[in-house]
Amino acid sequence: MPAMQALPAHDVERALQAIEMDGFVLLEDAISAAEAAELAGLVLSAPDRAPGIRGYEFVVSLLNHDSRFEKLVTHPSVLELARHLIGGRTDTASQHFTWPVEDQIRLGSVDGLLAHPGSEFGHWHLDSPMGQLNPARPVPDFPIGVNSFWILTPFTKETGATRAMPGSHKLRHLPPATNDSLAGEVVCCGTPGSVVVMPNTVWHAAGSNVSKKPRIAVAAFYQPWWVGRLTMDMYPVRRDVWKTLSSGAQALTKHQLGWNTDFHGALTTSDEK
Ligand SMILES: O=C(O)CCC(=O)C(=O)O
Ligand SMILES: [Fe+2]
């Protein structure tokens, strides 16, 4: 079974090469195992859930639950990769406009990815907005978002680790509409505290958790400064919470303060399930 490339968390240069070659990369031990365990517990106690496939829940809007999640979203290597992949130009010479460097990437969402024991295989997809584009047209050859999947409990085939297709970022079309295994897929195995960085040009799908424990991850999704609220299930950080965040996390989420909060979609709280 082929594996994804795994690198020390500080090695941004080689991580970019791995992303260029395969589409995604694992940064190992980007936070400590103890921090991962603490955050896994906080995902389990977070109240706002949106259902996924059977046995699977998105635990939405984690910064509103606990500001300790800002440790993930402001991780310097992940930010550097996101900035490189989707940030604006930093040279002023050939552009008639520029955008402040510190505002070139923004956070779309910070959600827990909770695959309970017995969860089903997820569907192969590209993250928003690629799946909303015209499927009869080529997928852009540049990303319009970068996801980071923080591994908080062990990711193995048995626990339902995310599956991903190396090289799919160069295919320029959507994956087949299936949740079956695809030839050439890799299972994104990793230990708690590691993070998979994956631009939204990469085919991927959740695995099925056949273990006895929940599989817990956090997805922090970064967008370029020229992209707005992609879906109504991206929930904004609350203003009172935003005021308590670090300046780095504030810069990444400030745009969300303008998002309408009247719409709550299929959001439920755990005592309403
Ligand atoms: O939970 C997983 O393994 C995948 C989740 C996913 O694809 C996503 O949140 O975009
Ligand atoms: Fe996804």
If you had to describe this structure to a student in words, what would you say it looks like?
- The protein is α+β, with helices and mostly antiparallel strands and 273 residues long.
- It has one domain: q2cbj1_9rhob like domain (Jelly Rolls).
- Helix content is 20%, strand content 20%.
- The strands form 2 sheets. Strands 1-2-9-6-11-5-4-3-12 form a 9-stranded mixed β-sheet. A 3-stranded antiparallel β-sheet has the order 8-7-10, with no helix packed on it.
- The N and C termini lie far apart (38 Å).
- It binds 2-oxoglutaric acid and fe (ii) ion.
- Residues 125, 127, 204 line the site of fe (ii) ion (FE2).
- Residues 113, 122, 127, 147, 162, 204, 206, 217, 219 line the site of 2-oxoglutaric acid.
Write the layout of secondary structure elements.
Blueprint: E1 6-8, H1 12-22, E2 25-28, H2 33-45, E3 48-51, E4 56-59, H3 62-65, H4 70-73, H5 76-86, E5 105-115, E6 146-151, E7 163-164, E8 186-187, E9 195-199, E10 204-205, E11 215-224, H6 239-242, H7 247-253, E12 268-269
Parallel strand pairs: 1-2
Antiparallel strand pairs: 2-9, 3-4, 3-12, 4-5, 5-11, 6-9, 6-11, 7-8, 7-10
Fe (ii) ion is lined by residues 125, 127, 204.
Which term fits the overall shape?
globular
Let me know the number of strands: 12
The largest sheet, given as strand count, sense and whether it forms a barrel, is: 9 strands, mixed
How many separate domains?
1
Lateral strand order in the biggest sheet: 1-2-9-6-11-5-4-3-12
Global structural class: alpha+beta
* Known CATH architecture: Sandwich
Relative strand content = 15-25%
Count of alpha and pi helical runs? 7
Bound molecules: 2-oxoglutaric acid, fe (ii) ion
* Average pLDDT metric: 92
- Kindly report how far apart the N and C termini lie: 38 Å
Q: Which blocks of ≥5 consecutive residues have pLDDT under 50? A: none
In CATH, the homologous superfamily goes by the name q2cbj1_9rhob like domain
Highest-level CATH class? Mainly Beta
The proportion of residues forming helix, as a percent range, comes to 10-25%
Element-level helix/strand string: EHEHEEHHHEEEEEEEHHE
Over the alpha carbons, how many angstroms does the gyration radius reach? 18 Å
CATH fold-level name: Jelly Rolls
